[in-house]
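task queued by scheduler; priority normal; single chain, no ligands, no partner chains; default sampling; output format set to structure tokens
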Amino acid sequence: MGSERSEPRVVLNIPADADGHWLELFRVALPGAQVWRREPGQPADPQATPADYVVAYGPCATLFDEQRRMKAIFNLGAGVRHLLALPNLPRNVPVIRLEDAGMAEQMVRYVLAAALRFVQRLDVYARQQREVRWQQHDPRSPSSLDAGVMGLGVIGEQVARALAAHGFAVRGYSRSAKDVDCVAVFAGEPRFDAFLDGLDFLVCVLPATAATDGILNRRSMSRLADGAHVVNIGRGAALVDDDLIALLDEGKLSGATLDVFREEPLSSSHPFWRRPEIFVTPHISGLTVPEAAAAQVAGKIARLERGEPVTGVVALERGY
């Protein structure tokens, strides 16, 4: 008779003060598994119990000096660039990102709030209030505006569908061809300019990769319609800050809604804080929902233990 399969060992690289009671959640989601927490940033312990699975949340610089024999690495977030940049990350171990886990619903609401504010010209009326100026403007409908979504992954596709459901004329930009109801999809770099041309409202949901770094720059944003509004809920590195400010100064763009930044927290000296045309939020458009995240990771660990495939595996060459 063969020996019984041991239960998986799972280490959570999570700060003790992180919200969500992660350790308890994972122990409930993985009954019978050995689950323990490691404090991020602590020195590597050569005597540490080897884990089958690592769940990363927070600084990871010493994590992979300590853990070298795991079957998979899970990241408690959609963005994995910080993990892939680690020189000690084992390159033969799959890295698996969160897929939605409660984030998409929040991000859809965030974008819709920005889109409807733009449609109703509430930014214009806010400026008029500061100027103590009473002036009415002609109403406009979502159908009169072209909205574009850069990045049609799990979250981007839901954002695009929600905008279309609210009456916007929606385009989507994707690395590869996709079929999304009520969305005109532009696939591949040769179609990027055509996707941008004349957009009134642009949403960036792209991951952080070498190809997307600085993609929202003077050249690309100049292709938008006069008075366009830019939303970034993807990664801060996608936006060239100085180019956005220059286009606002020139009147090419009317405003921006920004939730992600090249450096976070955003420095108190950054000019974005003092620009009334820019609405700044502290990276809250899609916060991880602990219960959903723990359930998703636990489900994938169970599939891997059964030898079954899982989704969300990061292609290291692409960076997402």
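post-processing summary
- The chain has ten helices and twelve strands.
- Residues 103-119 form the longest helix (17 residues).
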